[in-house]
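Key result, reporting period 2: structure in, sequence out.
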């Protein structure tokens, strides 16, 4: 009798542990799915058309590097560091090289707020005309900080696609903004790796 009681207690405990483990597994799976769903997905197909208008957001020298990359990708574009709505013309894509530079802003004779105002108006006009907007942050960790960070959110909120050098997004700011905006975002390890995905974004 005693032996039978021990067997019954052991069976009840086994069932209890199994149920507990099952609930824990479900909880972990749900948590994992919630976490992965908050991450921005990469671009799955080309969305942009040529010609493109390339401009800086923050007046850093990064725009010159993006220019070289677009040349390597044999993309048709025009570059205007102070582009406004009037410069959109027949362009079908707007490419933004995001990165703040106090020296660059000073050389352009504007401050950060004036630059943000220019870019916001440009983005609104581009959206109204149906342009695809590609946001690039290629400067890595060195192109982050109070000044550069001011320019990131306004661009990601309006962009259709983002391309980022991974060291510039260690805190997940841009991945979070992309996920919130519901846009694809790809990351690369180095500046030179931008060419391939950038070219692939164009039909």
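The corresponding designed sequence is given below.
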């Amino acid at each position: 009798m005693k032996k039978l009681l021990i067997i019954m207690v052991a069976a009840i405990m086994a069932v209890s542990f199994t149920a507990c483990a099952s609930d824990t597994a479900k909880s972990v799976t749900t948590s994992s799915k919630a976490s992965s769903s908050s991450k921005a997905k990469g671009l799955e197909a080309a969305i942009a058309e040529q010609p493109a208008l390339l401009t800086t957001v923050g007046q850093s020298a990064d725009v010159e590097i993006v220019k070289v990359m677009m040349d390597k990708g044999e993309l048709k574009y025009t570059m205007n560091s102070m582009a406004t709505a009037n410069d959109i013309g027949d362009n079908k894509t707007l490419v933004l090289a995001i990165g703040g530079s106090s020296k660059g802003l000073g050389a352009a004779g504007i401050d950060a707020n004036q630059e943000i105002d220019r870019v916001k108006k440009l983005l609104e006009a581009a959206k109204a005309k149906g342009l695809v907007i590609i946001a690039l942050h290629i400067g890595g960790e060195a192109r982050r900080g109070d000044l550069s960070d001011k320019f990131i959110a306004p661009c990601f909120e309006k962009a259709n696609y983002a391309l980022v050098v991974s060291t510039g997004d260690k805190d997940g700011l841009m991945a979070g903004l992309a996920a919130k905006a519901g846009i694809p975002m790809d990351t690369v390890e180095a500046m030179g790796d931008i060419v391939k995905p950038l070219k692939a974004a164009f039909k």
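The longest helix spans residues 2-37. The beta strands are 52-57, 77-79, 93-98, 132-137, 161-165, 185-188. This case is discussed further under Risks and Mitigation.
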